[in-house]
Amino acid sequence: MDQIKIGKFIAERRKARGLTQLQLADRLGITDRAVSKWERGKTLPDSSLMLDLCGILKISVNDLLSGEVVTMEKYNEELEKKLLETIREKERADQKLLMLEVVVGILCIAIFVPLILVAGLVQMEEWLRVVLILVGFLPLLAATPFMLRIEQTAGYYECQECGHRYVPSFKAVFLAMHMGRTRYMKCPKCGKRSWQKKVISKE
Question: Domain spans of the chain?
C-alpha cells in the first residue's frame, strides 16, 4: 500500500468535508497529531478506526486503501491487487518468522554445546556438573514450544501424495517425525501419510 498516496487522499477528503485535522481527530476520539501522521504518509489509520473514518469522509474502505475513489470498473482489479499484496505480505512475514526460528535455534545450541562440553570434560564437583547441564538445557527447553509454533503457523506443509498445502495442528507438528523442516504427517485432504515439506506459498 502506498502510504503517501493514502495520506494525501485522506487530506483531500477531509478538506472536501470542510474539516480541520483537529475536528476530524475529535470525531474519531484521537489526537490531531495522529491525523497529521496519516496525511504525511508516516502511518496508516488503525483498523479499528477505518470504518468510522470512511463514514466521516464518505468513502469506502477500498477507496481508503487505494488512495483514491475506486470506480466499479476498477473495483475488481483493485480487489485482486490487494489480495495479491496481502498474500505477499504474509509470505514475507512467514519468511521472517522462519529465519527467527533458525536464529533462536542457533543461539540455543551456542549456549547448550559449550556448557555440555565443559560439564563433560572439565574436572568439577558433581552438583556443579548437574547445574551446568541444566543451564545448558533450559534455553533449549524454553525455546522449543516457540520454535514449534513457528513451524506450525509460518507457511504451509505440502502433501507429497496429493499436493495439498495446509497448516497442520500444533499437536500434529509436535508428534511428527522430522528431518529439518520436512515432517512425516497425515494429510487432512487425502488421509495419507508422507514426508511433507515446508513451503511458503499456498499455491
Answer: 3-70, 90-152, 155-203
